[in-house]
């Protein structure tokens, strides 16, 4: 398994009490597979993603990324782990306005110490993989919303992560573009052999995912099969 959460509990202060965001959550995501995590707003989806990304330390339980258990790691070690092992696709691309699509990716590799030539080669490979090779030199204002999200995905893959965490990538897209983004994530997951977690409220695009998990009140349970989720979403 490339990503494993075991009996993870996370609470937040709520006045004099504690609010439970995650309640003994266990999740295994193998390399080369995509797990969709669904649930209503406030159910714990975002908290689960933040814990998996090592951005928040849980109260109890363990997070294991590509064989490394994160318990007890320093902030510096966690930062290094994220840079080497975890790609994060945020809900909004937040691309730098002055940089081309290719340069958005090159910056990530240069932060990791790669040479500019190697960084550009890898960036062009990934832009080709997401269908944006002809747009490599375009800036964000010259791209559609779906294209900007594809750049966002390619950027998260720039440092060859083993774990890919994706937060609501279709929320600002129409149905057709949203479906295309999920199809792209499914294909790249298999091609790049990442352990991918897709957090979403939209069940209509999940026909191609490998498994679905549902979050309710901080508890995680197996969800319906992808084809069942599609039928439910279409009712």
TrEMBL record:
The protein's GO terms of the molecular function aspect are: ATP binding; ATP hydrolysis activity; transmembrane transporter activity
- InterPro entries xref list: AAA+_ATPase (IPR003593), ABC_transporter-like_ATP-bd (IPR003439), ABC_transporter-like_CS (IPR017871), ABC_transpr_LolD-like (IPR015854), MacB-like_ATP-bd (IPR017911), P-loop_NTPase (IPR027417)
User: Sorted alphabetically, which PROSITE patterns does this protein's record hold?
Assistant: ABC_TRANSPORTER_1 (PS00211), ABC_TRANSPORTER_2 (PS50893)
- Please give the superkingdom of this protein's source: Bacteria
The ABC transporter domain sits at 3-233
The record's SMART domains line, in alphabetical order, gives: AAA
Q: In the record, which residues are listed under signal peptide?
A: none
Tell me a GO cellular component: plasma membrane
Keyword annotations for this protein, in alphabetical order, are: ATP-binding, Nucleotide-binding, Transport
**Which PANTHER family does this one have?**
ABC TRANSPORTER RELATED, IMPORT ATP-BINDING PROTEIN
Put simply, this protein is called Putative ABC transport system ATP-binding protein
């Amino acid at each position: 398994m490339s990503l494993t959460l075991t009996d993870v509990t996370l609470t937040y202060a709520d006045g004099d009490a504690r609010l439970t965001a995650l309640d003994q959550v266990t999740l295994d995501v193998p390399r080369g597979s995509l797990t969709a995590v669904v649930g209503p707003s406030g159910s714990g989806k975002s908290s689960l993603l933040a814990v998996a990304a090592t951005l928040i330390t849980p109260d109890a339980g363990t997070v294991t990324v590509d064989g490394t258990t994160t318990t007890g790691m320093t902030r510096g070690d966690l930062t290094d782990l994220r840079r080497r092992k975890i790609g994060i696709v945020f809900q909004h691309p937040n691309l730098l306005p002055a940089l081309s699509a290719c340069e958005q990716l090159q910056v990530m590799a240069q932060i990791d110490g790669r040479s500019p030539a190697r960084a550009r080669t890898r960036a062009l490979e990934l832009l080709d993989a997401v269908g944006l090779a002809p747009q490599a030199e375009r800036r964000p204002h010259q791209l559609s919303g779906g294209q900007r999200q594809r750049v966002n995905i390619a950027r998260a893959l720039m440092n060859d992560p083993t774990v890919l965490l994706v937060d609501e990538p279709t929320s600002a897209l129409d149905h057709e573009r949203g479906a295309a983004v999920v199809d792209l994530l499914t294909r790249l997951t298999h091609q790049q052999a990442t352990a991918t977690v897709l957090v979403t409220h939209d069940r209509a695009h999940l026909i191609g995912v490998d498994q679905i998990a549902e979050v309710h009140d901080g508890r995680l349970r197996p969800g319906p099969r992808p084809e069942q989720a599609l039928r439910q979403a279409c009712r």
